[in-house]
Amino acid sequence: MSFGISLLGLFGLTLLSGNLIAVTLILFGIVIITFEFGANYTVVANGLWNLFNSFVLTALPMFIFLGELLTKTGISRRVYQSLAPLFSYLPGQLVQTNIGTCTLFSAVCGSSQATAAVVGAIAYDELSEQGYKPKWIAGSLAAGGTLGIMIPPSLALIIYGWWEDVSIGRLFVAGAVPGLMLAGMFMLYIGIAAKMRPDEFPKRDVVPLGKAIRATVNIWPFIILVFSILGTLMIGLATPTEAAALGVVAAMLIALMYGQLTFKAVWEALKDTALVMSTIGFIIVGATVLSQALALSGIPEDIAKAVAESGLSPLLILIAVYLLYLVLGCLLAAIEMLLITLPFTFPVIIGLGYDPVWFGIAVVMLIEIGMLTPPLGMNLFVILAISGGRLKLSELAVACIPFWLILMLGLAIITAFPQIVLFLPNAVF
Q1: Tens digit of pLDDT for each residue in 333-356?
Q2: What letter does residue 151 receive in the DSSP assignment?
Q3: Nearest CA to 141 among 162, 158, 160, 124?
Q4: Count: domains in the chain
């Protein structure tokens, strides 16, 4: 046990030193196996074979490709332009449109960074020209982007479900209500702020209702795309991998209908998918090696046993796990944090009697919080890049504080009322 604790401490220091995370995971996995079991790496080879022979994991590159395809073919821009007239009736107008478009785009994308980048590229300059304050533009885009990993399909939920053998279909359905709840809370806050501080929100003309409804013509193909993914999952017609493939086909048909399905767009989407997937895949390989080593060493089980025998209440232990994720969210990106922590936190929390589907949603919400937490909140850097130097990190961090607090409130709500997460998957499945 003391060897395991010492090794984990050294592992943490190595991560904080800035070394390549995937390499760090692989090296420490090999060190554990070598010192504990000699040079017997058969289990590692078997684990890697099972990793790349996983049907479930093939959903990951498919959903990444789907998001890239929507970006490269310009479908997302049409959605934004169609939603803007509808949101002209709400206080905050185009800032509300940012949240609404992020919410809808999240239902087909699965990535927070991609959601923030796509909607941000469309909206940032437009809102700046309209005279909106930078804090509202940047804060709404960074916060709205976090919905990309909560509202299904979600890359984080795919990895969580595959890694811990939890039904991805149940996780997808479970993420829908909390995701929409967070979107509603963001919009409520923006609406209240627009009423209280109207000088910070330029007043635009309200689009006549008939014209606003007619403008939604470009949303309906997108709704069909959402149904091809979530609808087929919820009624049991497709697995997550099959739903991802259906989504890609539907996106191609929509792009073809708009005359934007070009060889260049598809090729660019494939190249970017390969880059993103290779990065994630390398981290997964490292996490697999370390996970196999930890499973053989029994360190996670020892930790779970020690926690269970500590006499602390389950709620207190859960709060401690939350604090761990909040700290790591300042230092690590989402996928790394997920794969590094789950071998330790999952057996502890499930051993206390918490539902694995509920815990998956709670972890993803914690990752969302990390996306807005400096110094390494990934959505902050996405919006900084889009702003082209017009914003400082400190300014953006301050702008995101209210949305960060809303995410914390959302986490407290699903902790106090877990049925908000569980009632829909229990009803569907």
Answers
A1: 777 778 878 888 898 899 888 999
A2: S
A3: 124
A4: 1
Domain assignment present for 146? yes
- pTM score above 0.85: no
Is residue 60 in some structural domain?
yes
Residue 91 to residues 102, 133, 200, 291, Cα–Cα distance (Å) = 18, 15, 11, 49
Q: Which amino acid is at 47?
A: G
Name the residue range of residue 275's domain: 48-281+298-428
CA distances from 120 to 12, 137, 254 (A): 34, 9, 22
pLDDT tens figures, 276-301: 888 777 777 777 777 667 666 666 66
Q: How far is CA 247 from CA 116, 205, 238, 325, in A?
A: 20, 36, 11, 32
Q: Does a structural domain hold residue 39?
A: no
Q: How far apart are CA 113 and CA 362, in angstroms?
A: 19
Torsion of CA 86, 90, 93, 95, to 10 degrees: -110
Domain membership flag for residue 34? no
Count H helices and E strands in the chain, helices first.
22, 0
CA distance 118 to 102: 9
| Six token digits for residue 51 | 């990793």
